[in-house]
Specification:
The protein is mainly alpha-helical. The protein has one domain: P-loop containing nucleotide triphosphate hydrolases (Rossmann fold), CATH 3.40.50.300. Helix content is 54%, strand content 5%. The protein has a 4-stranded parallel beta sheet. It has a two-stranded parallel sheet with strand order 1-6. α3 packs antiparallel against α10. The radius of gyration is 21 Å and the shape is globular. The mean pLDDT is 95.
Length: 410
């Protein structure tokens, strides 16, 4: 076995280092907030000193997730503490954004011009492609610290920005409690992040579905027109651009696979890059990451149940991608297969820039080359994926997703 190969064999009975165990025990001893909308909103108001939440569209998903978590998620003491605090933080971020927009209505006029939006499931090359393009100084991206706390408590924020330090503390905890997570998905304060975090401002985001097992919330999300959530995402991007500058965004999220119509309604001049890979590999990878992450909030995660859940959800998303792919205008969209990207990174970037009508100069070439030089693949080790752990049947998956495989040649 290669020395950098990581074997995880404690999905259902997580084992923690003494340091991690002490940290988790400390969290478990904290007060648990009642998962009731009014109580959470009151806590967010107390935290921020603000009380204007804006329009009421967010209240329905908040109510649904508050009902679903206690019944469906199976959380342990740590999970119950962090669920309440996570929801309060989402609401606090919304309060700060609403306050900023009320004090500076000119933000509503900030143009979000021709964003480049990467759409694809994890392990299809989206993270590397997103980070690679984000290294271009011509493009505006979303660092992890900014996604967690989009609006500072004071404007301008102190220097150094305390949001970055708080994010470093959070990622430091993750490194201790889940030391192999960075081999699946690196998270540092400056690491480029998905806008799925910003969409928690409306409590309508697939991030909630990855944090907690909440099928009731999933059903609401799938059956509800998400256009208001996408419009609110645009307002958040306007605010961030007003606060910290930038002219053209490079964004990325897997949840857009089910939302091509809403995406183009709200960002009609976007260039959309769809990434594709063998769906069996993608499903296995996603199930692995979800099962490993579950250890922080569930005492004995069931990897087969998690595998079944994400097998079904990934099929939903890929089926929607096949169904709605032609909603994306041909002149504004591009399909990128993982194998092609790995074989010719620079050629893929040039195709994307040509489609997006984004200039490629010496500064861009140097910045992207420097990023690659400092971010070699598998530098934190390679996780060994065991398909039997998650109850995934490759032949059944290949058959079920034959239409997707044929449509995109994977």
């Amino acid at each position: 076995m290669a020395t950098d190969e990581i074997v995880i064999d404690d999905y259902s009975n997580p084992q923690f280092s003494p340091q991690a165990r002490a940290m988790l025990d400390a969290i478990a001893s904290m007060p648990v907030l009642p998962l009731e909308p009014e109580a959470l909103m009151a806590a967010a108001s107390e935290q921020t000193g603000l009380d204007h939440f804006g329009d009421d569209w967010f209240r329905e998903p908040l109510e649904i997730v508050c009902r679903a978590i206690p019944v469906e998620a199976g959380l342990n003491a740590v999970g119950r503490v962090t669920a309440g605090s996570s929801l309060v933080n989402m609401l606090a971020n919304r309060l700060r954004l609403e306050d900023l927009l009320r004090r500076h209505p000119e933000i509503e006029e900030v143009p979000i011009a021709r964003p480049i939006i990467i759409v694809g499931l994890p392990r299809t090359g989206t993270t590397h492609l997103h980070n690679l393009l984000s290294a271009d100084p011509q493009l505006r991206s979303l660092p992890y610290w900014e996604s967690l706390e989009p609006v500072p408590e004071t404007i301008p924020p102190p220097d150094p920005d305390p949001r970055i330090e708080r994010t470093a503390m959070a990622t430091g905890f993750t490194d201790v409690a889940m030391p192999y997570f960075k081999a699946m998905h690196e998270m540092t304060p400056e690491h480029v992040h998905e806008e799925v975090q910003l969409q928690t401002l409306t409590l309508a985001s697939m991030l909630l579905e990855t944090q907690w097992h909440v099928p009731t919330y999933r059903d609401w999300w799938k059956s509800t027109d998400q256009t208001p959530a996408y419009r609110y995402l645009r307002r958040a991007l306007q605010a961030l651009q007003w606060l910290r500058g930038g002219e053209r965004w490079v964004l990325k999220s897997p949840q857009h696979l089910e939302q091509f119509g809403r995406l183009m309604t709200v960002f009609p001049d976007a260039t959309v890059i769809c990434t594709h890979r063998d769906p069996v590999s993608v499903t296995l990878s996603f199930a692995t990451m979800a099962s490993y992450s579950a250890r922080l909030s569930i005492d004995h995660p069931d990897p087969k149940a998690i595998g079944k859940y994400w097998t079904d959800r990934i099929q939903d998303m890929l089926t929607a991608c096949v169904r709605d792919r032609d909603v994306l205008p041909a002149e504004q969209s591009l399909d990128v297969r993982f194998d092609d990207f790995m074989a010719d990174e620079w050629g893929t970037v040039e195709r994307i820039y040509e489609k997006a009508e984004q200039p490629v100069g010496d500064e861009t070439r140097a910045a992207l080359s420097a990023y690659n030089d400092n971010h070699r693949r598998n530098r934190f080790g390679r996780v060994r994926y065991d398909i039997s752990t998650f109850g995934i049947d490759p032949a059944e998956r290949e058959s079920a997703l034959a239409g997707y495989r044929e449509r995109f040649g994977v």
